[in-house]
UniProtKB/TrEMBL annotation:
SUPFAM superfamilies: Pectin lyase-like (SSF51126). This is Polygalacturonase. Residues 1-23 form the signal peptide. One of its GO terms (molecular function) is polygalacturonase activity. Belongs to the glycosyl hydrolase 28 family. Its main location: secreted. GO terms for biological process: carbohydrate metabolic process; cell wall organization.
């Protein structure tokens, strides 16, 4: 038995050695094939420097990125690598599919456009920079930074300047969205620092199945139109564990959005988390099943809000704002169906129907320049089924404002709120019997 055991040990050792030798041989054999081998670990990582990117922050590295994308797109579970320690400058670029599933665009270094509108190539779109189109099962991730060099765009004379003595002048004002996902599905955005966008930082349009986790988005408080994350015509979205501070909405939810879950976000300074604006130029807007929970909003012009234009159609339904901490926020909870960006808007009878909205466990402090609660609903299309529960809002500084504003808003207080909200109307509006007119299909 001992002899047999010793023979077995020797045989097993030789077998393992043979396997190791063969494994090393196969690895080097595959490695020698370069990018042509799909079995090699190295062949699945497409480093932009291998394709000629310089990474000095001034050389145009666009051709290298396009070549690396084309190669990675053709390989399942491939990674396009933007390596740490370099700054890559590329121009407005379309990264289009379809690609093999599992593609990862990994930014560990710094990725940036040219500085300012004067250096923007005339042949390129001035409305978008990085565009990801017709992709499925793709990730944009990494430990690096995507920096939009936005300062010169914010300083254009046609931009709204809110600083001391600032003025706005007419003129062309196109500015690029930094990152746009368009007509794509099963997307993941994670880990990155995204900052100083000329306009929106990240935009999802016509997408389905979006996961955003642990991103850090920042631009100065007075940078105009720099929404952090904007979604429209997009379904099944999760936005989690992220920090956003900018000059406009932290998160804005446009028309056509369904099933959006926002959880664990720190927002501010900003314009808060907004649904809308909706119904602009008499359009139909349909938004439903939106949950915003476990969120901190600080030093912001708004907290959580719904904003619609007069003359619109459609509906906003099934909206839940829960467990939200306000810190020095104006308009902590706001529904505004008279949204207008100038003084020329006229009253109209049609409106986007707002119903089934809940505000639960909303606590903290507000800026006394505005009432903390403001529900201004359409004269002809009342807001219905607003629920208030465990709302406790106190002045950040100054005296308590005890007159929240309501207009044509129907709802209930499940618990006593601070300040008291006695302006909600009881029951349901007559419109409730005519909901089919406002139903979204």
């Amino acid at each position: 038995m001992k002899i047999f055991h010793g023979f077995s040990t020797i045989f097993l050792t030789l077998l393992i050695f043979t396997m190791n030798v063969e494994g090393r041989y196969l690895f080097h054999k595959n490695q020698n094939k370069g990018s042509s081998s799909l079995n090699s670990v190295s062949s699945c990582v497409f480093d932009v420097k291998t394709y000629g990117a310089i990474g000095n922050g001034s050389t145009d590295d666009t051709p290298a990125f396009v070549a690396a994308w084309k190669a990675a797109c053709a390989v399942e579970s491939a990674t396009l690598l933007v390596p740490f320690g370099f700054t890559f400058m590329i121009t407005s670029t379309l990264f289009s599919g379809p690609c093999k599933p599992g593609l990862v665009f990994q930014v560990d270094g710094i990725l940036t456009p040219a500085v300012g509108p004067d250096n923007w190539p005339k042949k390129d779109s001035r409305r978008q920079w990085l565009v990801f189109y017709e992709l499925d099962n793709m990730s944009l991730t990494g430990t690096g930074t995507i920096d939009g060099n936005g300062q010169q765009w914010w300083d254009l004379p046609c931009k709204p300047h809110r600083g001391s003595g600032g003025k706005t002048f007419p003129g062309p004002c196109d500015s690029p969205t930094l990152i746009r996902f368009f007509m794509s599905s099963n997307l993941r955005l994670s880990g990155l620092r995204i900052q100083n966008s000329p306009m929106f930082h990240v935009k999802f349009d016509g997408c389905e199945g979006v996961m955003i986790d642990k991103v850090f988005i920042s631009s100065p408080k007075l940078s105009p139109n720099t929404d952090g994350i904007h979604i429209q015509n997009t379904k099944s979205v999760g936005i989690y564990n992220s920090t956003i501070g900018n000059g406009d909405d932290c998160i804005s939810i446009g028309p056509g959005c369904v099933n959006v879950d926002i959880d664990g976000v720190i927002c501010g300074p900003s314009h808060g988390i907004s649904i809308g604006s909706l119904g602009v130029r008499n359009s139909q807007a349909c938004v439903s099943n939106i949950t915003v929970r476990n969120v901190v909003i600080r030093d912001s012009d708004n907290g959580v809000r719904i904003k619609t234009w007069q003359g619109g159609a459609g509906s906003v339904t099934g909206i839940a704002f829960e467990n939200i901490q306000m810190e020095n926020v104006r308009n902590c909870a706001i529904i505004d169906q008279y949204y207008c960006t100038n003084k020329k808007c006229v009253n109209q009878t049609s409106a986007v129907y707002v119903r089934d909205i809940s505000f639960r466990n909303i606590k903290g402090t507000y800026d006394v320049r505005s009432p903390p609660i403001h529900f201004a609903c359409s004269d002809s299309v009342a807001c219905a089924n607003i629920t208030m529960s465990d709302v406790e809002l106190f002045p950040f500084a100054g005296e308590l404002i005890d007159d929240p504003f309501c207009w044509n808003a129907y709802g209930v207080q499940e618990t006593l709120t601070i300040p008291p909200i006695n302006c909600l109307l009881d029951g349901m509006p007559h419109l409730a019997s005519e909901e089919n007119v406002y139903r979204c299909i």
